[in-house]
């Protein structure tokens, strides 16, 4: 199924796309549509979160678009999404990075974690086995897709930690874990 987006041509109905259901260890056990996986109480499925860094060590954050079905207008990592069943996570993340921000970067997976959170505004549930990927963005200006991204900002890890402490309600519930894993990986690599 496709939807027409003004000025953007046909776009895929993301809620109808399949996601890969997984067990608590991240092993594939089936598939279902995005909308079903995010309906309470939620079904554990594979996801990814990308965090891009610049040469100064700042991280690119996005404010999710108002039309998002889960956690709209909250600040989060550079981009996130779901691989199709059987699709390599890094491949899916690279595609999503281009769809949301119009950029490409070499991505490396640096960790995983599981979380579950209910969006109080929409009642939708995130129950995800999340793969964290990091990359570096140098020399490319993001071109955010307005259907996906409301706003962008670059922050140092310490600035993001302070923002998460002072206004956690302005950020997605998974962002603190993504920050922890991505920042640790960046510091380990020097």
UniProtKB/TrEMBL annotation:
- The UniProt record lists the keyword rRNA-binding: no
**Mind listing the GO molecular function terms for this protein?**
isopentenyl-diphosphate delta-isomerase activity; metal ion binding
Q: What is its EC number?
A: 5.3.3.2
Q: Which UniProt keywords apply?
A: Cytoplasm, Isomerase, Isoprene biosynthesis, Magnesium, Manganese, Metal-binding
Chain ranges of the Nudix hydrolase domain: 43-177
Per the Swiss-Prot or TrEMBL record, the active site comprises 80, 128
- CDD domains linked: NUDIX_IPP_Isomerase
Could you say which cofactors this protein requires? Mn(2+); Mg(2+)
- Please list the residues that bind Mn(2+): 38, 45, 82, 126, 128
**UniProt GO cellular component terms:** cytoplasm
Family membership: Belongs to the IPP isomerase type 1 family.
Instruction: Tell me which HAMAP family the record gives.
Output: Idi
Q: Which PANTHER family match?
A: ISOPENTENYL-DIPHOSPHATE DELTA-ISOMERASE
Supply the name of the protein.
Answer: Isopentenyl-diphosphate Delta-isomerase
| UniProt organism field | Nocardia otitidiscaviarum
User: What is the primary gene name for this protein?
Assistant: idi
């Amino acid at each position: 199924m496709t939807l027409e987006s003004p000025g953007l041509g046909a776009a895929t109905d993301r809620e109808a796309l399949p996601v890969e259901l997984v067990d608590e260890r991240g092993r594939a056990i089936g598939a279902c549509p995005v909308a079903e996986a995010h309906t309470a109480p939620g079904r554990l499925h594979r996801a990814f979160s990308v965090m891009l860094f610049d040469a100064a060590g700042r991280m690119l954050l996005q404010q999710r678009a108002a039309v998002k079905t889960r956690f709209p207008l909250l600040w989060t990592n550079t981009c996130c999404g779901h691989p199709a069943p059987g699709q390599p996570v890094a491949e899916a993340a690279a595609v999503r990075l281009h769809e949301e921000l119009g950029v490409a970067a070499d991505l490396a997976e640096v960790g995983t974690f599981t979380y579950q959170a209910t969006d109080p505004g929409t009642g939708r549930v995130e129950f995800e086995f999340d793969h964290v990927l990091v990359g570096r963005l140098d020399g490319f200006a993001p071109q955010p897709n307005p259907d996906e991204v409301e706003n962008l900002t670059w922050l140092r890890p310490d600035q993001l930690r302070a923002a998460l402490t002072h206004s956690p309600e302005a950020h997605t519930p998974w962002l603190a874990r993504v920050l922890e894993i991505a920042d640790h990986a960046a510091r380990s690599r020097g």
